Amino acid sequence: MVQKAKILLVDDRPENLLALEAILSALDQTLVRASSGEEALKALLTDDFAVILLDVQMPGMDGFETAAHIKRRERTRDIPIIFLTAINHGPHHTFRGYAAGAVDYISKPFDPWVLRAKVSVFVELYMKNCKLREQAALLRLQLEGDGHAGGEHEKEPAGLLAELSARLAAVEEQAEALSKQLDDESADAAAVATAAHLERKLTGLRRALDALEPGTGGGAGVLPAQS
């Protein structure tokens, strides 16, 4: 069963949160509300999110300050942030949003189809990264188990590597299709960069698996670090 991604919606106005939920409900993911920057930071302490939709104009801690706190935390600094604002003060205001760590900056009223499409890209990238981490963790566990096994289990590593190679091939195929989709749609630079980062991690894992094949002289120590 595929676990749903979580999307954090941050806005001090309940009607805006309701509108965002209506727009994004079609993605069939878990939508989490936060009515202030402080509430958003609290939610980020315990849950992992695929993307954050953050209102700029909020009483107390505004969107810029909230984003700065998010980017300072190691746990949350890589979560994509899409700023939403009802006002437009020109290029300087937009630049401040990007400087705060936003991957996109959308002025209200926004096109629901465009917003949903942008969010769906980051959700898909998040799911691909989760799948890659799961495959890497499975490989490590199996290799550790095989290191303590012997006798009748001596032939198991070869079958394990073949199974993991097949699973990795499926992820590689999906990542390649996603990259082509981003190129065709002229997606945001941040989304393209994230997809490229995912492909580099997949390449590292593929090299590690190839090195573990019998006769290559490889070993478990060649597994790439996952970030």
Automatic annotation (TrEMBL):
Where is each Response regulatory domain found? 6-123
Q: Which residues form a coiled coil?
A: 161-188
The reply on keyword Coiled coil is yes
- Give the InterPro entries listed for this entry: Bact_response_regulator, CheY-like_superfamily, Sig_transdc_resp-reg_receiver
Pfam families linked: Response_reg
- Give the signal sequence positions: none
Keywords carried by this UniProt record: Coiled coil, Phosphoprotein
Does Phosphoprotein appear among the keywords?
yes
Q: At which residues is 4-aspartylphosphate found?
A: D55
Name the domain of life this protein comes from: Bacteria
Q: What name has this protein been given in UniProt?
A: Response regulator
Species: Streptomyces pakalii
